[in-house]
Amino acid sequence: MALLLLLGQLLALMGHGGAFYLEVRELEEKCFIQEIPDGIVVIGNYKTELYDPAMEKYQPSPQWINLFVFVKDPENKNLLAQQYGPQGSFTFTSQSPGEHQICLHLESIRFALFYDGKLAIHLDMQLGEHTNDYAEFAAKDKLTQMHLRVQQLVEQVELIQKEQEYQRWREERFRQTSESTNQRVLWWSILQTFILVATGVWQMQHLKSFFKAKKLV
Question: GOLD domain: from which residue to which, for each copy (predicted)?
Answer without folding.
Answer: 29-150
